[in-house]
Design a protein that fits this description.
The structure is a homodimer.
Chain A lengths: L4 H13 L4 H10 L9 H13 L3 E3 L9 E3 L1 H12 L10 H7 L1 H4 L1 H31 L5 H33 L2
Helix pairs in contact in A: 1-4, 7-8
Chain A binds a DNA duplex (28 and 28 nucleotides) through helix 2 and helix 3.
Chain lengths: ~180, ~180
Amino acid sequence: VARTGQTEMAVLGALSIQPMTGYALRDAIRTVLGHFWSESFGQIYPTLSGLARQGFVAKAATGAHAGTFTLTKAGRRRLAELLAEPVQTTPPRNGLLLRLFFGRTLGREACRELIRQARDDAQARLAELDRVSAEVDDETSADKPFIQLTISAGRHSARAAIAWADESLAALDRLDTP
Amino acid sequence: VARTGQTEMAVLGALSIQPMTGYALRDAIRTVLGHFWSESFGQIYPTLSGLARQGFVAKAATGAHAGTFTLTKAGRRRLAELLAEPVQTTPPRNGLLLRLFFGRTLGREACRELIRQARDDAQARLAELDRVSAEVDDETSADKPFIQLTISAGRHSARAAIAWADESLAALDRLDTP
DNA sequence: CACTGCATGTAATTTGTTACATGATTCA
DNA sequence: TGAATCATGTAACAAATTACATGCAGTG
């Protein structure tokens, strides 16, 4: 069961910021990269084993970081290599829009409910990102400006979703009372 | 090889708007739903066979629509059922943001290039959606308002991407000349 | 000492993509 | 009559999720 470059990139990248155990890695990917990335549980350990076998990461046996996986020189090179590869976009699959497209069959009220739900989700996402952004601003790290870039992307996207939802709810209301 | 509800929904939904051959279906999903949905080639025929076996679609043998797949009564019920199911969101996997997050390793200029690329893509997407929106506005169909909803979502998202890209490029420039 | 969280892994299953294979029809 | 497009499918492969299984360490 070979692993793909995508998962490798996330794992190597996370370890480039800090040595971690597999468990902590999973947690970091969920909480830190969670806004734009995800790895399923069963991916991480096999990927780590593979990377270790190829000499890209090493499990520290001693010292303060005992038990954690560390990026090797070769691993750092491999990461740079992977990052330089062209971005592969995943084919879009938006279940919400698919349902709205067939809104005539689904019914207007159900559509409204879906949109309201999407609006609430976006609102919550935005609040969370605002919180995280402020938190990141307080720490000092060479990665900070890049992290803020990704957070900003999430905020723009959330605000767009909210604006769209409001507009769409109004448009649906106009359908009922022409 | 059982098929999932997601693909079924897209296929039944497309056929609810117009009877089509499998080939046309693939084309319609690519061009009409393409902004927010995709089905790989090898999914459509097996799904159609499955739906036919269950009596949700029928291949018209005669008449003007000979050779096309048509939604049956049961199929229409099944579609309503599927549309009513809760939206399952796919786990996020944004290769662009993953790379930017590790921007320190990737390098500033490479980051800029990625963002410029993303901006161009969004710009092209927006122009295309504007075109499609105007096109849809001209025809008269009961589906029109719902279709416009999905197009509007794409436009909001594209505009957000452009604004984010501009902001981010400026932020990266400020890093170089503090 | 029971419970919670840390830590590591495997197996089964689902899902989806790519590439291949085939034949009919249309059009230049 | 050759090339392109329409049309239908299958097989091999790749990727990812879920659920299962296990053990240790700290703590109330």
